[in-house]
Amino acid sequence: MTTTANVDPAELAKFSDLAHRWWDKESEFRPLHEINPLRLAWIDSIAPLAGKQVLDVGCGGGILADAMARKGAQVLGIDLATKSLKVAQLHALEAQTPQVSYREISAEALAQEQPAGFDTVTCMEMLEHVPNPDSIVRACAELVRPGGWVFFSTINRNAKAFAFAILGAEYVLRLLPRGTHEYARLIRPSELAQSCRGAGLEIAHTRGLEHNPLTGRYWLSQNTSVNYLVAAQRLPSNV
């Protein structure tokens, strides 16, 4: 295992304890399964996945990594949660997904090992779980080739996001385990944009992810007040 200072042991433990439930679509990870087709289609519409070298940072149990491989990409998923990676590897074997592999390594360490090694990098639902999200953004920028795409998804930091993403999702609707998110670690779009610019990434597309708790439907929109996704391109000069 490659060590890194940019990790919260409590966050690793939180997801490790739930690792065996990653592929249970009725478990705590149900929302990830339900939004996966939306984020997969959005990524593929901007940076077609077929035939590309793709990295999924903070891959967890491999829900997105597996789906991108099935779109024809050669995918590497990385994480620092050992149990989650073992679940991802087992699922790849059981589902016979040959174009996906997994490694227990940090984004920062992989950036030193394979700079500009990928056509596309995804980092979804992870930035709000690490002590230094700027470091992850920089590593993603270093990992993607000039002209390549980096995709992030995270949660805005405001009163509405607190009400919907924490109180509503974790305590009222119980879509997620209590304590999944900490308000202080949520990231405003302006803050993520600043991190991207500092890393040599130019944001080209932003979408909000909305949810109707009555119907259970998720959809993408222009409303980034709670959950949102960002597509950023590495500038050619950032070599």
Automatic annotation (TrEMBL):
Belongs to the methyltransferase superfamily. UbiG/COQ3 family. Keywords: Methyltransferase, S-adenosyl-L-methionine, Transferase, Ubiquinone biosynthesis. It catalyses: a 3-(all-trans-polyprenyl)benzene-1,2-diol + S-adenosyl-L-methionine = a 2-methoxy-6-(all-trans-polyprenyl)phenol + S-adenosyl-L-homocysteine + H(+); a 3-demethylubiquinol + S-adenosyl-L-methionine = a ubiquinol + S-adenosyl-L-homocysteine + H(+). The gene is ubiG. The lineage of its organism: Bacteria, Pseudomonadati, Pseudomonadota, Betaproteobacteria, Burkholderiales. One of its GO terms (molecular function) is 2-polyprenyl-6-hydroxyphenol methylase activity. The keyword Methyltransferase applies. S-adenosyl-L-methionine binds at R39, G58, D79, M124. One of its GO terms (biological process) is methylation. It comes from Simplicispira suum. This is Ubiquinone biosynthesis O-methyltransferase.
